[in-house]
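Worked problem 6 (solution included).
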Amino acid sequence: MKRLAGWKSWLLTLAAALLPLDVPASPTGEQPAGVIASGTPSATPYYVRDSGVTGPTVVITGGVHGNEPAGAYAADQIRHWPITRGKLIIVPRANVVALKADKRNIPGEPVEVANLNRNFPKASEKESPRGALALALWEFVQRQKPAWCVDLHEGSDFNAMTGKSVGSSVIAFPTPDDKAVALAIQTAVNANITNQNHRFTLRGPPVDGSLARAAGEHLGAHAMILETTSKSQALSVRARQHRIMVHVLLNHLGMIDGSVTPELMTSRVPPITPVPRLAVYDDGGTGGVGAARIVEQVGRQPGTVVVRVCGDDIRAGALGQFNVIAVPGGSGSKEAATIGEDGRDRIRKFVENGGGYIGICAGAYLATSGFSWGLRILDAKTVSPKWDRGHAMVKLELTDQGRRILGNIQGTFDCKYANGPILCPAHVESLPDYEPLAFFRTEVAEHNAPPGIMVNSPAIVAGRCGKGRVVVSSPHPEQTKGLEEFIPRAVAWVTDRASIAEKTNAR
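Solution. The predicted structure is:
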């Protein structure tokens, strides 16, 4: 009985460890090259890009500390990069149990071996790694005989502001080549950082007991730790910084060509595929749990690719990898400011050329045509400039088309509301009229907001812009129990390319 209970506990731990994190899936069914620590709760896949051309072997690891998700997120994106020389080996989630628990250290391990990044052979010693996971990772890295070993981390604060954290720093092994590449990395990643206190610093060597330090000391590899900062920065921003830094290294080594840019986050498949490839904006202006809920709910759909993107990604052309973008709640004007005029133009052209758009609350404001900063992809404006109506549960009711798209809910139902727009037609000649999918049946009218304008006004609408489809929601179905399928169903509708083509040709 004890043996059976032990197996049951092990299986539950393994299942929890292997649940998908908030990382993009491979839409091509790309399989890992193998699994490290196979048959244990710490089992984690690794991926190999072998060019078949003689060149250096580079090992990249992420997620060694479980409360530092940006490294794992970026590594799982970088693994899709094609290389032209050498071999690229990536372990995106080195510490799956800690990542799942969102804990720095390995849960349940004795304190002396709980910190994975202190368990590798130290500089002046020939000891074996401490702990089963460190041993498995170290044996794997040794077998690769890497020329470079790069470990992706993030600190809690900016190193330029405080000596208490190594966030936003490039920590290189102290050799001339390592230092030269570290300086190039620092220059590139700082190029678009205007706040001097947030700029990356140079440090070294990596901490003793770390994977990078051990690779440099015992394997003769060039080695570094790349640290972003979790404080006040979106996951998409930190992941982009990691991609920029790794891009500098691989470009320096001649392992990538001009087709690979820091904006490449997914496998290269035609973005016109009807399978949703969703970019979720999570940069400046967003707030609360909206982005995370969209990622979670849409990411459950088989084959779907869901990736967080920032304003810099959008301006750099990242939307070419996707067929729909979702913008969650927060502040529409602040989202517009962070995305920038060029980024807003890119979103507009993306939709006009057949891309889908999902906007919730602030993302709905952003889609409209009544503001100078609006995307103008929806023939709608707000009824009143008094946006601060309050937060409450309100009653909605779906239209017939709403039931076809969002789900067959009869009668009225509750939905979370938080200052979403009250919409009316903007009468933009170049845009077709929107179609209501749901109406408000009750209202909120606090803070001197005008009463009477919310009841029976559209709560969720669908529209078209060029070849693309748009769905915006004033309230928050993604944050309402029982309405978790609304946004995935809306995503499915806006990515229905065959239907779009038929209706476009029929005009």
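Discussion: The radius of gyration is 24 Å.
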